[in-house]
Amino acid sequence: MKLHPVKVHPSKALLPREKQLAWKIAAVATDKVAIGKDVQEMIVNRIIDNAAVAIAAINRRPVVSARGMALGHAKRAGGAQVFGVRPGTTVSPEWAAWANGTAVRELDMHDTFLAAEYSHPADNIPPILAVAQAMERSGRDLIRGIATGYEIQIDLSRAICLHEHKVDHIAHLGPSAAAGIGALLGLKQEVVFQAIQQALHTTITFRQSRKGEISSWKAYAPAHAGKLAVEAVDRCMRGEGAPSPIYEGEDSVVAWVLSGRSNRQDVYGPVYYQVPLPEPGEPKRAILASYTKEHSAEYQSQALIDLAFRMREQIADLEAIEKILIHTSHHTHHVIGTGANDPQKMDPKASRETLDHSIMYIFAVALQDGRWHHVDSYAPRRAGRDDTVRLWRKVETREDPEWTRKYHSRDPDELAFGGRVEILFRDGTRLVDELGVANAHPNGARPFARPHYIEKFLTLTDGILSTREANRFIETAQDLPRLKAGELGALNVALPAGGLRESKPGIF
């Protein structure tokens, strides 16, 4: 990997494209280096994972609405599949990316990568797969595109923090999806360069979507970025250009939205970011640094859910608890903890999207139930239980510098996203335990492997898919490297006739 400095340059400097980050990203996308077998296997795992969480969410209102919008853009020739819909119906690929991206994101249960910025890199799969289906590409083409999408989003997330400027993380997804589509299609570097810049320019949105009363837009946001990436590539394939240099320009993203604006007196001086990218001929292996979720909740809660399961075994009476203190990282404390200062995170009438960003609620329910379910654990009746509300309001988070350090560690063996929990009882005794990574994490007690991904798929789709369709999909996904051009439609998963809810009418 090579570090690439990113700073603001005045327009009169005429920064050569060879020195621009978007050009360097496009070089990675167009480098046809071989994809390792372990990377191919992990891509198969994440395709199975995406399908699992998408089908589990298939009849939730945001997914139904997104599907209804997509079906308003039917396209028989050059169309892509929509999750749940039978193979005879295809839609324009950007709308398939929209519908499928929303389905994948709705339950907040697919993969994650956390560094300077956090991300869900499997959000790259819906737009890249939609274009692959529409353009009748092969399994190997799809693998190349997905490996690239993961590489770019994870590399950007390693270097450029968006949330400190209240920018939503989809600002890294637009460029990564555009790069992945470019790699999939074997486009020239010039075209990918322009598409990356367009995709970034159009996907700068702000973190209010994950603050206060969190709405269904949390699921739509990455789908929106994927859709815009497809449209950006389409325009640039037709010869259109983009605002440039999009990262380094005088009025660019870095200059006015990210760290560049913090030092306007010397705006052209310091280097703000060092972005790692593979060198020419270096394999794209970033997907192996990401990790999926066993539980349907914000990733920072994964280890704490597992810890709650463990600690409850040592507690005879939960009503005897006086207070629960969660000592954790800056990010966990300020985003899903009491440091966010969001009263909605303590409200039993809050939306599901808000509850899955409340570690206070999540820890209380996990401690009481000893299980976590993507539907039952968020049910309004469950959230409103008197004993739950009492316990919930006893939970407080505190930032611990050591957990913050571990959260940002560059040592994969030290990297941690959990915390130390101190439970104080009315009789003056206390119970203390800690867990750094979730059981399903690569360094956890039970790292996820292919059988776990298949188990997750079968569990989440039980009662929704026919056994025959579930088995067909699993077999097809595992055969991905051998799928020929035009066969990628088989990666769709269809519900039995009558199994899909219909959307309320809209414009489309």
Draw up the topology in text.
Layout: E1 2-6, H1 21-29, H2 37-56, H3 61-71, H4 93-106, E2 113-114, E3 118-119, H5 125-134, H6 139-159, H7 170-185, H8 189-202, H9 217-237, H10 253-256, E4 273-277, H11 302-312, E5 321-328, H12 330-335, H13 352-355, H14 359-369, H15 380-383, H16 386-392, E6 395-399, H17 401-407, E7 419-425, E8 430-435, H18 450-461, H19 467-478
Parallel strand pairs: 5-6
Antiparallel strand pairs: 1-4, 2-3, 5-7, 7-8
Protein traits:
single chain; alpha+beta; two-stranded antiparallel ribbon; 8 strands; 19 helices; 42% helix; four-stranded mixed beta sheet; 508 residues; 2-methylcitrate dehydratase PrpD; 60s Ribosomal Protein L30, Chain: A
Give your account of this protein's structure:
InterPro entries: MmgE/PrpD_sf, MmgE/PrpD_sf_1, MmgE/PrpD_sf_2, MmgE_PrpD, MmgE_PrpD_C, MmgE_PrpD_N. This is MmgE/PrpD family protein. Residues 19-263 form the MmgE/PrpD N-terminal domain. With 508 residues, the protein is of the alpha+beta class. Helix content is 42%, strand content 8%. The mean pLDDT is 94.
Low-confidence stretches: none
The helicity comes to: 40-55%
Distance between the termini: 45 Å
* Cα radius of gyration in angstroms: 22 Å
Task: Tell me the total number of β-strands.
Answer: 8
Q: Which band does the percent of strand residues land in?
A: 5-15%
